[in-house]
Specification:
This protein is of the alpha+beta class. About 55% of the residues lie in helices and about 15% in strands.
Length: about 250
């Protein structure tokens, strides 16, 4: 494991006090660092909405996004069990989990995943979601990977709760609902870019996120601008019409 990358990841996930803090980008960073640091092919983050129901907030790939949504729609899978029990849930070989999660196990195999380890995002008794690690090959995550993965989830949870506490009058549920609303806008922008530029959804998101980071924009604000047809210099968006001479 890359020690420098690991230390950088903890610094990044602990730094939530910046003025332009973006929850969605923050949680995508958590999935990216999890894949880079751990023996995981992909990762996803589910957070609870104000009613206590899990919602997808971030995924490292489009395949994981679709699988996580399938899991939520069918109300079965290791990530839901992890959230409900506040305990890690390991499935090192999903072919043996057909009886426990028949629909999820079949969908995961079809998506190219053979193992999953779900880690709770919690602070003491408060559980706000789950970090889900997927592998393309069957096998257990190492003890070190599980420890580091849980530490990343814990630091991210503390960061979210700390950022919430700095916002006057804003509850955690309000913050998470805002993140879920932003996710919807981002998905719409990804779809528009995918159709207009002939990109897959992963490429569309990478383009969107890179543009936002290079210009210090909030990801959700940029996504709304793309839906509205701005900014003018965004790749693939039509240039504004020139004013007619008077």
């Amino acid at each position: 494991m890359d020690g420098e990358l690991l230390s950088d990841a903890f610094v990044e996930l602990a730094d939530t006090l910046v003025a332009d803090f973006d929850v969605i980008d923050f949680l995508h960073l958590l999935t990216e660092r999890s894949v880079q640091l751990l023996d995981a092919s992909a990762a996803g983050v589910l957070l609870a909405d104000p009613r206590g129901e899990l919602r997808l907030v971030a995924a490292s790939t489009e395949a994981v996004r679709v699988l996580e949504l399938f899991q939520l729609q069918n109300d079965q899978g290791p990530c839901l069990d992890c959230f409900r029990t506040a305990q890690p849930v390991a499935a090192p070989d999903l072919t043996t989990a057909q009886q426990r999660w028949p629909q999820f196990a079949a969908a995961a195999e079809q998506a190219g995943f053979a193992a999953v380890h779900a880690l709770p995002m919690r602070l003491r008794s408060q559980v706000i979601g789950a970090l889900n690690l997927f592998r393309a090959s069957a096998g257990s995550f190492s003890h070190e990977d599980v420890r580091v993965g849980q530490a990343l989830a814990d630091v991210a949870t503390i960061g979210l709760l700390q950022e919430r506490s700095t916002r006057r009058g804003e509850t955690l549920h309000e913050q998470l609902q805002a993140a879920l609303n932003s996710r919807v806008v981002i998905e719409q922008a990804k779809g528009k870019l995918s159709e207009r530029l002939g990109l897959d959804m992963d490429q569309a998101f990478t383009l969107l996120r890179s543009y936002a980071r290079n210009r210090n924009l909030r990801l959700s604000d940029l996504a709304q601008a793309v839906i509205d047809g701005t900014p003018a210099d965004f790749p693939g968006l039509p240039a504004p019409a020139s004013p007619r001479p008077g």
